Amino acid sequence: MSFSFKFLPVKDLIFSVIPTIGTYLGYLQGVTPDLLANKYVAIGVGLVASIILAFVFYKENVKSYKRSLAEILATGYVMNFTERMGRLLQSKLPYKILIDDLEGQPISPDNIYVEIAIPKSMQALKDYANTVDEETTTVFLEDPSSGQPIWLRGKLEKDDLYIYDFPRTLFALRNYLKADFSNPKKEAKRSKKIFAYFSDKVDELREERISDFLSNRINFKTI
């Protein structure tokens, strides 16, 4: 991503210039090592050390920002969708289909199957999104406990409903990391690292909420 001063906090900048200040003070106080007896060498070494440390701090802050962003999106996706789907499949009450000529038709949770795709890259996300849009239709299920409709993409096959979903929120990364997704070459390489953070967080949350994903009718797959 492009350079930004927000990833070089004042505290890190202060830490990075300490070697320079120490070198200056050491020279002035006559305690500079023999290797740095020449003041220009001392100043040069201090500046180089400062620049290196500042660069290290900057890279670490950028990495932390990307990881945090991916983990926030993963947390939202699990809590707002996958966790809800897990509970849906464990329900004892039938759901009502709210679509076309099947309006109001009940369907048992035992006849609902969910596939959740976790992409490895932005290209994989695009490809799967296109496939889902082409091969499925919009389905609304009425939650029997709240009466609220649940928006889904899926298809009916006889008495079974197959739901296909993926983390659409990952498309939002383009708005926050424009430089990383500015051209296909950068996007292919950098999206893999960011999507790996997302996938790791999803796995972590699934372990923490394992009781919501006990059904063998919810399938997580990596694409």
Comma- or semicolon-separated keywords:
223 residues, alpha/beta, 7-stranded mixed β-sheet, 7 strands, 51% helix
Summarize, please.
The protein is an alpha/beta fold and 223 residues long. The protein has helices at residues 10-28, 39-89, 122-135, 173-176, 184-208, and strands spanning 95-97, 105-107, 112-118, 137-142, 149-157, 160-165, 218-222. β5 (149-157) and β6 (160-165) form a beta hairpin.
Describe this structure in words.
The chain is an alpha/beta fold. The chain folds into 2 domains: 6-61; 64-222, no CATH class. Helices cover 51% and strands 17% of the residues. A 7-stranded mixed sheet has the order 2-1-4-5-6-3-7, with helices on both faces. A hairpin with a 7-residue loop joins strand 1 (95-97) and strand 2 (105-107). The longest helix is centred in the first third of the chain and has 51 residues, at 39-89.
Q: What's the SSE blueprint?
A:
Blueprint: H1 10-28, H2 39-89, E1 95-97, E2 105-107, E3 112-118, H3 122-135, E4 137-142, E5 149-157, E6 160-165, H4 173-176, H5 184-208, E7 218-222
Parallel strand pairs: 3-6, 3-7
Antiparallel strand pairs: 1-2, 1-4, 4-5, 5-6
Helix pairs in contact: 1-2, 2-5
